[in-house]
């Protein structure tokens, strides 16, 4: 596999830290989005930009694009949203026929510029290697030891602290002797956890998915090339036709000679059911099933499991909307819009003042008083994690004149942290871990509370239970976990557990007290 020595990395010149999330952002956090394109004659940088735009919901902390023209690779990345990181001038400078794009939410490593992706390495032969990762590995401590054994390793002057960076380091080390494809075939079976990868050298686009296929990854066809992406919605936005999913345990390579594929492990499908519930865009398809249709069906089944006498069904926009439509269909109760969402409030570098901060959820949602006054409401949301959002929402609706507020949740109680790429919380912070449904109802102040059952949620996905990971609901982790000392978001930063936790409550005795990135949640205003 040919490679050029004329490899170059371009870096953005802005701050190395990002602001804390808005205080009311207490729900589950998406993981990351990856996008790759091989298309001679196309503007692959802009194509990647729009692909990442379609995947922005999967990560809002940082974004980056690596582009190769066959001779050198240029990487541009920074903290912020895709629209904040890239402008017309930057994109026009990224010329080539091959690109890797990434938008990040951190599950391993802090929110710093160094940890933004794609990661980049120069191999001993001078070839460049860029990599984007969606997911989270559980044998990161083991991989760190492998990296420590490498001699004369070139870390390009960066000090990233992510599992993705370790993968890039080990892949670059192996590629010097074997080429990228063979190095990947040897390295990928050693990775444990969730990984959907898009990576590239100067000439070839690669894609790989863990044997369990925890996170989605799809292959699309352009008139003059190929695309890989985290979701089918990203194919749609760039005009690519869906070909198939990258199979669990599969490695794909795309270059001037065409596309080739090889299995690096036997498939053991365990797709994340929470992709259907919340993470993926509603206009995406996973395993042949429409995410939107799944959410509507969950709502119908929720209405059967938890009926109530009410006047109006309203969603918590936007993620609760399809399930609310389904609940209205299943119950016969009219559907309406009772909450207006400010579409422009999200992660931002402009921090609200203390006065505005105290308004909390009103920054994002405002009640339509004329719609909800005097009504018995069914409020449909996608999940309850800590309960902060629902508590504030119920209070706001009552203040706006609702007679009754019945909360219905389109997922089962979240009782266990995720170690495969979703930032929920530590187990001690999960409200359903320390209280039954009645306790949660009292905590959020609603008149009633109902969750869809695991069985009905799975049935709505039209996937066999055996092919899904429901660990955050049932505690059955399909990929074995190491000791807690070898888990955690800041594992590679050597931050003491006490510092990670800050003011978080002490975890209860027993396994899996740690979580990813949520230790500071209770210290936020």
From TrEMBL:
Its cofactor is Mg(2+); [4Fe-4S] cluster. Mg(2+) binds at residues 319, 381-382. Keywords: 4Fe-4S, Glutamine amidotransferase, Glycosyltransferase, Iron, Iron-sulfur, Magnesium, Metal-binding, Purine biosynthesis, Transferase. The keyword ATP-binding does not apply. InterPro entries: GATase_2_dom (IPR017932), Ntn_hydrolases_N (IPR029055), PRTase-like (IPR029057), PRTase_dom (IPR000836), PurF (IPR005854), PurF_N (IPR035584). [4Fe-4S] cluster binds at residues 272, 418, 469, 472. One of its GO terms (biological process) is purine nucleobase biosynthetic process. GO terms for molecular function: 4 iron, 4 sulfur cluster binding; amidophosphoribosyltransferase activity; magnesium ion binding. Pathway: Purine metabolism; IMP biosynthesis via de novo pathway; N(1)-(5-phospho-D-ribosyl)glycinamide from 5-phospho-alpha-D-ribose 1-diphosphate: step 1/2. Binds 1 Mg(2+) ion per subunit. It is an enzyme of class 2 (transferase). It catalyses: 5-phospho-beta-D-ribosylamine + L-glutamate + diphosphate = 5-phospho-alpha-D-ribose 1-diphosphate + L-glutamine + H2O. Pfam families: GATase_6 (PF13522). In the C-terminal section; belongs to the purine/pyrimidine phosphoribosyltransferase family. PANTHER family: AMIDOPHOSPHORIBOSYLTRANSFERASE. NCBIfam families: purF. This is Amidophosphoribosyltransferase.
């Amino acid at each position: 596999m040919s490679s050029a020595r004329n490899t170059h990395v371009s870096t953005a010149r802005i701050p190395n830290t990002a602001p804390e999330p808005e205080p009311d952002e207490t729900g589950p956090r998406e993981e990351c989005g990856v996008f790759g394109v091989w298309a001679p004659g196309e503007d692959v940088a802009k194509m990647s930009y729009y692909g990442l735009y379609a995947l922005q919901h999967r990560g809002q902390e940082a974004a980056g694009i690596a582009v190769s023209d066959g001779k050198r690779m240029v990487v541009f990345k920074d903290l912020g949203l895709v629209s904040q990181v890239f402008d017309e001038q930057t994109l026009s400078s990224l010329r080539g026929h091959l690109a890797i794009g990434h938008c990040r939410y951190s599950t391993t490593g802090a929110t710093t510029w160094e940890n933004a992706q794609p990661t980049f390495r120069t191999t001993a032969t001078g070839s460049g290697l860029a990599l984007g990762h969606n997911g989270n590995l559980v044998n990161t401590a083991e991989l760190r030891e492998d990296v420590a054994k490498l001699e004369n390793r070139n870390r390009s002057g960066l000090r990233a602290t992510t599992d993705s960076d370790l993968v890039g380091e080990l892949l670059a080390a192996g590629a010097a002797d074997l080429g990228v494809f063979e190095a990947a075939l040897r390295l990928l079976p050693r990775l444990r956890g969730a990984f959907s990868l898009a990576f590239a050298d100067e000439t070839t686009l690669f894609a790989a998915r863990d044997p369990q296929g925890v996170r989605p990854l799809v292959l699309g066809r352009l008139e003059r090339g190929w695309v890989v992406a985290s979701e089918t919605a990203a194919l749609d936005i760039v005009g690519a036709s869906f070909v198939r999913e990258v199979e669990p345990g599969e490695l794909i390579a795309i270059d001037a000679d065409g596309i080739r594929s090889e299995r690096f492990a036997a498939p053991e499908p365990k797709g994340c059911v929470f992709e259907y519930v919340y993470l993926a865009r509603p206009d995406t398809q996973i395993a042949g099933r429409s995410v939107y249709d799944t959410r509507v069906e969950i709502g119908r089944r929720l209405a059967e499991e938890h009926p109530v006498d009410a006047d109006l069904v309203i969603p918590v926009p936007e993620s609760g909307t399809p399930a609310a439509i389904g609940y209205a269909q299943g119950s016969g109760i009219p559907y309406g819009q009772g909450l207006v969402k400010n579409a422009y409030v999200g992660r931002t570098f402009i921090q609200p003042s203390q006065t505005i901060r105290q308004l909390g959820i009103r920054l994002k949602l405002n009640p339509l008083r004329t719609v909800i006054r005097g009504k018995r409401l069914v409020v449909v949301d996608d999940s309850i994690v800590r309960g902060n959002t629902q508590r504030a929402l119920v209070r706001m609706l009552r203040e706006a004149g609702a007679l009754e507020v019945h909360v219905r949740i389109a997922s089962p109680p979240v009782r266990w942290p995720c170690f495969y790429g979703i930032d929920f919380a530590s187990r001690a912070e999960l409200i359903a871990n320390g209280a039954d449904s009645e306790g949660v109802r009292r905590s959020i102040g609603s008149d009633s509370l109902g969750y869809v059952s695991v069985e009905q949620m799975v049935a709505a996905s039209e996937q066999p239970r055996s092919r899904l990971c429901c660990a955050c609901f049932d505690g059955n982790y399909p990929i074995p976990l190491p000791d807690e000392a070898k888990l955690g978001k800041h594992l590679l930063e050597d931050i003491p557990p006490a510092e990670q936790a800050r003011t978080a409550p002490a975890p209860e005795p027993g396994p899996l007290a740690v979580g990813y990135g949520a230790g500071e949640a209770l210290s936020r205003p």
